Amino acid sequence: MKHTTSSLPTALRRPGLLLFSLLGFVAVTLTGSISNLQAQSRTISFESDSVGIYSSTFRSASDPTVAFWNNTPILPDWQIGAFGVNSRGNRSLLTLGPASNVEMTFSSDITSLSFYYGGDAGSLRGSGVTRVTLKLYNNGIEIREITQVPNFNNRMDQRIGISGPSFDAAVFAFTGDNGIRTTVGDEVIDDIVINGGGGGGGGGGGFGEQSDGTTRDPTLTRKQKAKLDLRNAERQLRKAKRSRRSKKSTVNRLKRRIKRLKKLLKRL
After folding, report:
1. Contacts within 8 Å (CB) and 24+ apart, 238-241
2. Confidence at 214, pLDDT banded by 50, 70, 90
């Protein structure tokens, strides 16, 4: 049987239109996928933050959904500034105080985290520091840990990163072989890349998780932020106490955080 052009399906009679439609569909699909990926990946560079000294919780203007904590027993906790070869760009985040570390909590679950670090002076090598340790937590339970040997050149030229099951908190510190924080050294970090969570919405169990999004508002006063952080810290402590997998050190860390927040609220 002889087929005429009119008896063929429309798509076959107009191959140019079909090809154009398919290319358009692929382009839209790829664009959507790339947009979603970009929405889930963000960088904290501290370039938009004011130079100065900060106490208790610190949130960068780059991404207020991330709360930074320093477990040092004294105040102040943080300094934003340029620290020569220990910085990238014009701003980096420096921990202050003995036995300091960098604790990060996220408003929604994260799947990967990486950043540059410095402050690894050669003198630390003879003071018990043998490595840097990055630990991940979910609902107060440690789920993964990696270590890296610093080059002890006191420059911000090394990067550490980790990915895995979703997590809502991370702790970074100079440690000994046993993974325990030493009493020397001040960590300085920059260019933090976070994947997952999208920077919005609740569901993670980290600090600042609020359905109305208020903790993501950088215009909140220090007292409002402290109240929200206290409420979330108390919630994390309750979860940690209920879980059989929670370590005693995690419970104690949360108790110290709650105590410091209550002291801060009295001063504000």
Report:
1. 239/139, 239/140, 239/205, 240/139, 240/140, 240/141
2. very low
